Amino acid sequence: MKITSKLAVALLAALPLSSVADETAAVEQQETDEIVVVGRSVATSAARIEVERELLVDTAAALRDIPGATVNRNGPITGIAQYRGMFGDRIAVDIDSLGMISGGPNAMDAPLSYMSPMMTEELVVTRGIAGVSLSPEAIGGHISTRTSRGEFGAGDFGLSGMIGTRYADNGNIGTTAARLTLANDRHRVSAIAEFDDGDDISTPKGDILPTRLERDRYDLSYAYTAGGSELLVFAGKLDTGETGTPALPMDIIYIDTELYGAQFGVDVADGIRIDGRFRYNDVAHVMDNFSLREGPMPMAQRLNTTGGSGSQFFVAATFDHGAATWQAGIDGIDASHESVITNPSNGMFRIDNFVDIGRSLVGVFAEWQRGFGDGELEFGARYNRVSTDAGEVGAAGMMGDMGDRVGELAQAFNAADRDLDWGSFDMVAKYRLQTSASTEWMLELGSKSRAPSYQELYLWLPMQATGGLADGRTYIGNLDLEAERSNEVVVGLSTRIGRFALSPQLYFRQIDDYILGVPSENMLANMIATMMSGSEPLQFDNVDAEIWGIDAAWSYELSDRLLLDGIVSLARGKRTDTNDHLYRLSPLNGSVGLTYAGGNWSLKSEVIGYADQDRVSVINNESATPGYWLVNLGFRWNPLPALRVEARVDNLLDEAYQDHVTGINRARGSDIPVGERLWGAGRTLSAGLIYQF
Predict the structure, then answer these.
(1) Residue 39: per-residue pLDDT
(2) What digits encode the pLDDT tens for the residues 481-510?
(3) pLDDT tens string 369-399
(4) Looking at CB atoms within 10 Å, which of 259, 310, 374, 463 has the fewest?
């Protein structure tokens, strides 16, 4: 909802002077369906977070400020996006308009871990059903982020940039970032670097070991613009050092990633535009279960050397015919993965876990938009073709019955048909109706699909390489999986009544062939898992499920300088082929914030509340969690036009709490027992200093 009162200007006054003009113009030009608060805007179509204004080390944590969204945390910088009850590969996460190819089978390098907060300009969550052009397999939602590379100049070349530092006392977490941009009105060269490090995090129940972190992120880019033509080329690097992931069976020793990309857009004729994007990334990743946590006996030590690489592309033509707009295009992803497990104490031990994994997708799509009465219609259709393959696996160094049974399991996998493919059609229809200058209604219908991931297909030996599920169970793959199909309806509105603004949405998803772990019927795998872990594994299989819920953002202007705002989110999910709830769904939650805006400063108090979650998955041995309340305080001050001072206190009352979507502890030697859900951080004081020029 558009806020045009003095309050919006007062809130913007607490931002750096270099951004005030742009932000004020944005407020004046926003559509009537947008609610604007400091650092966040929520509309019927999208919710945006200005991440660089958040005192964070994990960009994924910003999702908690968006209705319907949250983050599954397995470690300090391994946040997995969740939106309206779906997470992992079901959520498409774009970085500068294309996704990332992960290097590890447990999402230790989840896409948002590549976006260090101080170099992230914004994070945008598509509210409702993502259009078919946004991403090939956005069955559960779409999130996009953009790297902050500076702006073009107004004339001759000039220098601009920023330098900033932040510190949080809980975990001694430090962040330093800098950007230097040389630009005129046509050319722009930008260099960015951010460095994050920290120690173990404390909770009211003790320290979580290991939760230390090390991460360096770099980006170098060149951009050109002239008339209707645009070009961007970039190269980047992510160096993650020793970083704990206590909810997973191993910790990060390193993740080294190289990223390259190019984007262009050109107006080829009146009303015709061509846009294209290309990205390549290569990941080298090593993890183990003994360097950062209390290790097992030498015979049980494990070191996992993994890698992922591949390319992505997008080319589309847009035809603007005045009343109607057409877009048609083609996109694709080609990815490869490897994983080898060894024991540094036993040179004979080796498991070829994922070998020569290939997954390729090619999609074609078309979208049509047109004004219709007092509203707008949108229709989209897409066809995807997904192909996967895997090489032969094996194991060595296992003695006796264990070695024999693992060998039999490998032989059965190698003898099976591993060259698989799926073809599927997606369709989306949307209608937005403007019933008054301050009210908009929306209705969305969609049928979207996702082919199985390589872990769900090719995990031949019972393990926890599950894309970050973090439930403590071992899993095996299934070569007979069908693609998931989600049929969804979303209804919502955005309205303003005087000083009050509200933007709720109600949604329902019926998911056919939902891929989920079920009790394994593979007797050989069951015997192996029981010998290794004491319990039988789950096997990925197709089931039927449904997810429904409601989420909303709201705000109320108490005065020209005082704003009350908040969000609320509810998601419910269950299997419909049996009596069980879906795993790792966040309970009813919400927040209420009170912001006072002074001349060049602002102060916000915030209360966050989560209800009990006793709708848990029996199959995943999921435990219930009690509700809790947290109180946070935030302060911003601009003593100079280009200087911003930040301070924040999270969990002011030092409450002990467990976020339901946080993983189960797997690390021995921590104050948190193995098998218990990780506790949330205790009282944390943060401060930062940002200078822009």
Answers:
(1) 64
(2) 999 999 999 999 999 999 999 999 999 999
(3) 999 989 999 999 999 999 999 999 999 999 8
(4) 374
Contact 359, 338 (CB under 8 A): no
Chain-centroid distance of CA 480 in Å reads 28
Q: For the purposes of burial, counting CB atoms within 10 Å of the CB of 159, is it exposed (0-12), middle (13-18) or buried (19 or more)?
A: exposed
The residues, any chain, with a CB within 8 Å of residue 201's CB and separated by 6 or more, are: 76, 170, 171, 207, 208, 211, 681
Alpha-carbon Rg for the chain, nearest whole angstrom, is: 25
Task: Dump pLDDT digits (tens) for 255-290.
Answer: 999 999 999 999 999 999 999 999 999 999 999 999
- pLDDT for res 28: 32
Closest CA to 249 of 200, 207, 305, 295: 295
* DSSP-based three-state secondary structure for 579: coil
Among 245, 161, 263, 159, smallest CA distance to 200 is for 245
The whole-chain average pLDDT of the chain stands at 93
Q: Which amino acid is at 499?
A: R
Closest C-alpha among 175, 198, 177, 237 to residue 75: 198
- The SS3 assignment for 497 reads strand
Residue 276 exposure: Cα atoms within 13 Å on the Cβ side = 10
CA angle 362, 364, 368 (to 5 degrees): 155
Do residues 44 and 435 make contact, with C-beta atoms less than 8 angstroms apart?
no
Angle at 661 between CA 667 and CA 546, to 5 degrees: 135
Dihedral in degrees, nearest 10, Cα atoms 580, 139, 421, 334 = -130
Cβ count within 10 A of residue 648: 22
Residue 150 three-state SS = coil
- CA distance readout (Å), 683 to 4, 214, 353, 631: 36, 22, 41, 10
Strand partners of residue 71: 81
Q: List C-alpha distances in Å: 503 to 41, 66, 491, 555, 595.
A: 11, 12, 11, 9, 19
User: C-alpha dihedral over 342, 343, 347, 350, to 10 degrees?
Assistant: -30
What pLDDT does residue 1 have? 32
Residue with tokens 């994007």: 277
Decide: 631 and 167 in contact? Cβ < 8 Å.
no
Q: What six digits make up the tokens of 403?
A: 């070695």
Q: What are the two backbone dihedrals, phi and then psi, of residue 440, each rounded to the nearest 5 degrees? A: -135, 135
Amino acid at position 393, single letter:
V
Q: Is the CA virtual torsion 126, 131, 137, 140 positive or negative?
A: positive
What tokens were used for 276?
């294209």
Residues 2 and 32: beta-carbon distance below 8 Å:
yes
Side-chain half-sphere exposure of 641, counting CA atoms within 13 A: 6
pLDDT for the residue numbered 234: 98
Alpha helices in 566-627 (DSSP H): none
Q: Distance between the two ends of the chain, CA-based, in angstroms?
A: 32
Helix/strand/coil for 3: coil
| Residue pair 555/35 in contact by the 8 Å Cβ criterion | yes
Report d(CA 198, CA 194) in Å as an integer. Answer: 14
Structural tokens at position 515:
């891929």
The Cβ of residue 415 has, within 10 Å, a number of other Cβ atoms equal to 9
